[in-house]
Amino acid sequence: MKKNWALLLLLAACGCTAVFTREPIGERPVNIKDEQAKLAGTWVSDDEFIDKAHAFTVRVEDSSNGVLQLAWVLPDSLQPRKANVYLRDANGWILATLRPLASGDVADTNACMWARITRRGNTLLIWMPDGDKFAKLVGDNQLPGTVTRNGDNESQTVVLGHLGSNELARLTSSTNDVLFHWAEPYILRRIGE
Fold it and tell me: What is the pTM of this model?
């Protein structure tokens, strides 16, 4: 199996439906021992996301269990932020879950953002979950979790429950409805060690 993995930068909701989890999503940790030199370093994006940060520093915390540490600075306040990123395999896909380490990054620090990722050389592609599709699946009891309407009544928050093998097969299926924003991946490029 060709291994494609990398770090994760998960994005704040943009007036739509955000999808969170309380635990790393995937069946097993991804061993990144052979990849750690290609993951550690500085990654940049020209997209405005994660509080408008454009550069991120990545360090490998635990290569055998697929744990990275991510750090960035918010340019408007110069407030540093840190998070752990957990890389997990799910039917050949790499799913990355971001757990903030500093208070205030996410209202509920038990709620982690996540995405599907693929690294190609010094480029990282990040596909965010389609919040509206996940809200429907949770609302129809096809996936465990909760859906909460936000105060503006235009957006909602999905918090997924534990996803077992059947639910992960649904997420990674190529025959079911696409559950990620395939046409709009976020792209990061590694510029230094």
Answer: 0.85
